[in-house]
Amino acid sequence: MTSRRDFLQKAGLSTLAVSLPFTDALSAMSLEREDKVLRVAIMGLGSYGTRVAEAMKDCKRAKLVGVISGTPSKIETWQQKYGIPAKNCYNYENYHQIKDNPDIDAVYVITPNSLHKPHSIGVAKAGKHVICEKPMALNAEEGREMIAACKAAGVHLMVGYRMHFEAKTLEVVKKQRAGEFGKTLFFQGLSGFMIGDPTQWRLNRELAGGGSMMDIGVYSINGARYMLGEEPVWVTAQEVKTDPVKFKQGVDETITFQMGFPSGAVASCLSTYSMNNLDKFFLNGTKGFAEMQPSTGYGPIQARTNQGPIEAQHITHQTTQMEEMAAIILDGKKPLIPVDGEEGLKDLVIVDAIYEAVRTGARISLI
């Protein structure tokens, strides 16, 4: 029997092997439809794909209309549950045929990390907008290839940074940018949990590209950047591994890392797969502070500043994310915190530098 891993690897290779004619996607898609609803297919029907699908039930501007999966039984279940027509159902070997389907505008790629690049490029060549789950790719080089492919195809490339649309997060960012905390000096990001099943793809270097850093650590990298409002110029990092059986070579268990910023601000962060109760951001400035705990979980997010708690209605993150992404594609809306491919690339550059710092013990310059 073909394993999930073997199938996914085959799927990724088959994607790279397909050569499709150039499609001017923006003109091919009827984005001037009266309903102005973004019609989305989900690629990868695992637990997070299911979470996105459930959240989209409450969307007004985005609608789930298609699926792409290597498991026929999942496709059948989703067809019945979400009313998806058979003509909008594809597998990993024939999904390129979506280029001939005018009823799909965008594909949300939620496959293992190593397949983000081939699958996203395949979707772009088929003339559809790409929403890719984070991390956007395994490294910065792959990220650049994805950006180039989407630009060549004339389609949007966005990364599933749901926190960029979360109400309390945005309120903290607005306060920081308005100078309410004074000169911001320090950021702390703690991102971690105890991972379970040792056979899952997230602990397979070939599929995940690493360990906790590729999954949960990205939140602290990204959070430091939008909470401080600037880009780091150097990183240092250290790795700790207590279970080399579960966390094999190339799969990081725990990494602590530090970043320095042009203003003189510093960030101290931790990414781990071996400790629970780590979901906290703390921002400190000369006039005040902001603290978020939980800061990136599915919610509700809790946030307070030196002036008191921040109040905002909790809305399922993926619902808001898909509504806002629909507005970006359909209306040209500019989000306060970007979610485009260039934003994803900035995080990948830092991830690469962190792994290099772990390997060498050196401070790595980002400029």
Question: How would you characterize the overall build of this protein?
Answer:
The chain is of the alpha/beta class and 367 residues long. It has eleven helices and 15 strands. The strands form two sheets. A nine-stranded mixed β-sheet has the order 14-13-12-11-7-10-9-8-15. The longest helix has 20 residues, at 341-360. The model is unreliable at 1-5 and 7-34 (pLDDT under 50).
Distance between the termini: 49 Å
Number of helices: 11
Which range best describes the helical content: under 10%, 10-25%, 25-40%, 40-55%, 55-70% or over 70%?
25-40%
| Backbone structural class | alpha/beta
Strand order of the largest sheet: 14-13-12-11-7-10-9-8-15
Order of helices and strands: HHEHEHEEHEHEHEHHEEEEEEEHHE
Task: Please give the number of β-strands.
Answer: 15
Low-confidence spans: 1-5, 7-34
Radius of gyration: 20 Å
**Largest sheet report:** 9 strands, mixed
Q: Roughly what fraction of the amino acids lie in strands?
A: 15-25%
Q: What's the rounded overall pLDDT mean?
A: 93
Shape: globular
In short:
The protein has 367 residues and is an alpha/beta fold. The protein is 35% helix and 20% strand.
Features of this protein?
alpha/beta, disordered N terminus, 11 helices, six-stranded parallel β-sheet
Secondary-structure topology with pairs:
Layout: H1 4-17, H2 25-28, E1 38-43, H3 47-56, E2 62-68, H4 72-82, E3 89-90, E4 106-109, H5 116-125, E5 129-132, H6 140-153, E6 157-159, H7 167-177, E7 184-192, H8 205-208, H9 212-228, E8 234-240, E9 254-260, E10 266-272, E11 278-285, E12 289-292, E13 303-305, E14 308-309, H10 317-331, H11 341-360, E15 364-365
Parallel strand pairs: 1-2, 1-4, 2-3, 4-5, 5-6, 7-10
Antiparallel strand pairs: 7-11, 8-9, 8-15, 9-10, 11-12, 12-13, 13-14
Helix pairs in contact: 1-5, 3-10, 5-6, 6-11
